[in-house]
Amino acid sequence: xxxxxxxxxxxxxxxxxxxxxxxxxxxxxxxxxxxxxxxxxxxxxxxxxxxxxxxxxxxxxxxxxxxxxxxxxxxxxxxxxxxxxxxxxxxxxxxxxxxxxxxxxxxxxxxxxxxxxxxxxxxxxxxxxxxxxxxxxxxxxxxxxxxxxxxxxxxxxxxxxxx
Length: 163
Description:
This protein is mainly beta. It has one helix at residues 3-20; strands at residues 24-32, 35-43, 47-55, 60-70, 74-76, 84-85, 91-92, 95-98, 113-123, 128-139, 145-151.
């Protein structure tokens, strides 16, 4: 067998397996003392670009944070991550966009439905991709999250950011 043909075959197998692996993000939440902690599992994602949380009815923002390739497995509501390592080893930090930086977001209200949008980015040898996944969540009478389900696109409310 020709070495060139063998090399081409090996590369096709590598690229084929790389492209066929499924990209996935799952989200769950738990109370840790008084904090709401999101557990994030990612597969074939370089990092999260952002997290937006808004109440569905009335349609209003609660928290918007630019995550700058965050790839840790937990994120605490209202705490902006700093000094984390990205997928390529760079030291990075997130930036809160709403409410204004330095202001804690409101606690989730009881018996309400919220949408959580996680935007992500990935690149490999064959492609650069980004997108967003949406989750609907409901709170119980104490404001604790009782369910998180993946959903299709859900439009966020308008957001006037400070200039």
